[in-house]
Design brief:
The protein has 241 residues and is α/β, with parallel strands linked by helices. The chain has ten helices and eight strands. Bound molecules: phosphoenolpyruvate. It comes from Acidisoma cellulosilyticum.
Length: 241
Amino acid sequence: MRPLIAGNWKMNGLTEPSVALARAIRHGLGDASVEVLLCPPATQLASVTGIVEGSGIGTGGQDCHAKEQGAHTGDISAVMLRDAGASYVILGHSERRQDHGETSEMVAAKVRAAVKAGLIPIVCVGETESERASGAQEAIVGQQIAASLPEDFDGVVAYEPIWAIGTGKVPTSADITRMHDFIRKELIRDLPEGANLRILYGGSVKPSNAAEILSLPEVGGALVGGASLIAEDFLAIIRAV
Ligand code: PEP
């Protein structure tokens, strides 16, 4: 399966810079052998989708509600994301788990809603710094996988150690490999499609470390935060595959 390089713009992007960033990525991409995805804020999703249309670049949301519609002020449903042009949605990002108290069970409900709406879910899992220091990382990630992925899950898993997100710290290649091997074993054990699902790495991926990380076995791409906001950096990460 082609590697996936996904940019998570998080809560960044007014209209003008979002349009400029999407255009720069589209025009700088050339013949990419990887799948490229932009996940702008929901307010920019339709316009970014319009800019990349026909280029092979996809767009995704950063979260969705578990319900299709109704009295949920401020929330956005998977159907709405699809309607705005998204083909993917990031779910269970650690910032959602922390800022909004999202549990893995809530993430699983959102995954079901996303799939029903025709979106491919990218489910994030990862341990805190203290969980890694105590050697609990596999137990934590194993629990998150078991509870966040419905038994018929067919989507993408992103391993994002929380302590590596936006910090410039990155696990060693050996640690990334160990965790991705562990995740693969869990997926194969629990899911019919487990052997075929892409497992992305996320956490301070930059042009300088992308080639090494993306060459590791079982790393099927990257979920990129900060570096996805700079067109040259994001394009350099794509070219590093
Ligand atoms: C992220 O938030 O998904 C992420 C990986 O961020 P960064 O690349 O900035 O560490």
